[in-house]
Design brief:
The structure is a single chain. The chain is α+β, with helices and mostly antiparallel strands. The protein has four domains: 2-49; 60-293, Thrombin, subunit H (Beta Barrel), CATH 2.40.10; 300-386, PDZ domain (Pdz3 Domain); 399-495, Pdz3 Domain. It contains 13 helices and 24 strands. The strands form four sheets. The chain has a six-stranded antiparallel beta barrel with strand order 1-2-3-6-5-4. A six-stranded antiparallel β-barrel has the order 7-8-9-12-11-10. Strands 13, 14, 15, 16, 17 and 18 form a six-stranded antiparallel beta sheet that branches. Helix 10 crosses helix 13 (459-466).
Length: 497
């Protein structure tokens, strides 16, 4: 028995040794051999760095002609026309700093001018610059810095809150400017560049594609009586400081003004929105020529066409925009368009959503004639439409002329005046001359708080109301002034001259 146990232990030992040799030769030995020493690791790293010059990177996508896309030409043609915009404003115009607690703690001395930043695009060699309204909204002074570091003080030519656009002018000649493209022919999937100058360094360029067109994100709701949202959506990286910058195609043509992003954090997250250049062209032309944007009204209520509407109206195809009603004596009704018609085209440009229709209408003025193609009883019909303004006539509205007829200089209230009159809105009448305000009985020092029942937060509110009026119209304003013991409030009726 002892002999048998002895040989059994020897057999187990031999088998264990054999098993260990097999494991070593097949696994552990390979790992040890595969691990290089320190010097070999260094040589491998050097070789990897040297070989990186020979790496075949993924090529830039090809265009329809089979040629490699090149962004450098478009970038070179656009970066010098994009500027950095600095908007300076006083804290006393900000409601937060009008709080008496802030004033008690920090005093007037702490109210230093504030600055906000954005981008802008030079569109003419003589110095017209387009940017966003929200970039210069509170400005007392606007400065722009070119890509070559030249600095200019800019004049604010005009603004349009309904599209979030503003037009600046600098005193310069032979400035670098960007050619204007055609946003109507822009296609989803097309490559675009977003160019901005957010940090006052030099212009920066990012690339992406057109993700969608005619996007309405309701960002301008409540900003003006008439708003137009029909954005070009892209996935090019755009952040806050890029507002007012350029969206260009691969030809280097301006096809949009970058305006908004959708982001929980306020930083780029894949959704950027630009105002189409064809809409920008019209707004800029109006601001230069009239000082106000001229809005043409078709005189219809509309709804997007979906499957339910297509079934209700027995349409052969889901397309266009439904006319749910027409305004009496409006442009559409006068032309022969009826409730139940499906608007398909405006001047041969297809419209398949409410935002597409409002974008196209935003390109025209009262008094202009356009052609509307509709579907009626599943047959196409074309109508010649003479556009009108919001009052139902074809006149061009010149709010600046009516504003001048008031015969006074106006300014927003300072802190002391707001405390005195116990109001956080209104404008003060200064430098009163012969005009409609003086004829109505107002005097210098009066505070205008309401016009046509609307609060007057600034001079733009007055201009906006006047833009919807005609010569000879009567406008009601509410004003107050301080007596020896009381604050007196009156309503006045002024006649536009």
């Amino acid at each position: 028995m002892k002999t048998r146990a002895f040989f059994g232990n020897i057999a187990i030992a031999l088998l264990s040794a054999l098993f260990a040799v097999i494991i070593y030769s097949n696994y552990l030995k390979k790992e040890i051999v595969a691990k290089p020493d320190i010097e070999t690791q260094k040589q491998n790293a050097i070789a990897l760095l040297e070989d990186s010059n020979q790496v075949n990177y993924t090529q830039i996508p090809l265009n329809s002609n089979g040629q490699t896309l090149d962004f450098t030409v478009a970038a070179e043609q656009s970066i010098h026309a994009v500027v950095h915009v600095t908007s300076k404003y006083n804290l006393e115009n900000d409601s937060y700093y009008q709080n008496p607690i802030y004033e008690f703690l920090f005093g007037d001395a702490q109210r230093q001018p504030m600055e906000s930043f954005g981008s802008g695009v030079i569109i003419s060699e003589d110095g017209y610059i387009v940017t966003n309204y929200h970039v210069v909204e509170k400005s007392d002074e606007v400065q722009v810095v070119l890509n070559d570091k030249r600095r200019f003080t800019a004049e604010l030519v005009g603004v349009d809150r309904g599209t979030d656009l503003a037009l600046l002018k600098v005193d310069g000649t032979d400035l670098p400017y960007i050619a204007l493209g055609n946003s109507d022919i822009l296609k989803v999937g097309e490559w675009v560049l977003a160019v901005g100058n957010p940090f006052n360094l030099t212009s920066t360029v990012t690339a992406g594609i057109v993700s969608a067109k005619a996007r309405n994100i309701n960002i301008l709701r409540g900003q003006a009586q008439y708003t137009i949202e029909s954005y070009i959506q892209t996935d090019a990286a755009v952040n806050k400081g890029n507002s007012g910058g350029a969206l260009v195609n691969l030809k280097g043509e301006l096809i949009g003004i970058n305006s908004a992003i959708i982001s929980p954090s306020g930083a780029y997250s894949g959704y950027s929105f630009a105002i189409p250049i064809n809409l920008v062209k019209k707004v800029v032309a109006d601001l230069i020529k009239y000082g106000e944007v001229q809005r043409a009204v078709l005189g219809v209520e509309i709804r997007g066409v979906d499957n339910e509407i297509a079934n209700d109206y027995k349409l052969d195809k889901i397309e266009g925009v439904l006319v749910s009603s027409v305004t009496e004596e409006g442009a559409a009704k006068e032309a022969g368009i009826k409730s139940g018609d499906i608007i398909l085209e405006v001047n041969n440009v297809e419209v398949n959503s409410n935002s597409e229709l409002t974008e196209q209408m935003g390109k025209y003025r009262p008094g202009e004639t356009i052609y509307i193609t509709v579907k009626r009883d599943n047959k196409r019909k074309q109508f010649e439409v003479l556009l009108r303004n919001m009052h139902g006539n074809t006149k061009i509205v010149k709010a600046e002329e009516y504003f001048s007829s008031l015969g006074a200089s106006l300014r927003i209230l300072d802190n002391r005046e707001k405390r005195l009159f116990d109001t956080d809105f209104g404008v003060r009448v200064v430098d009163l001359k012969n005009g409609s305000l003086k004829k109505a009985g107002l005097q210098e020092g009066y505070i205008i708080t309401h016009i046509e029942g609307q609060k007057v937060q600034g001079i733009d509110n007055i201009k906006e109301v006047l833009s919807s009026k005609d010569k000879g119209d009567i406008v009601e304003i509410e004003a107050m002034h301080s007596g020896t013991r009381y604050i007196y409030v009156y309503k006045y009726k002024i006649t536009l001259e």
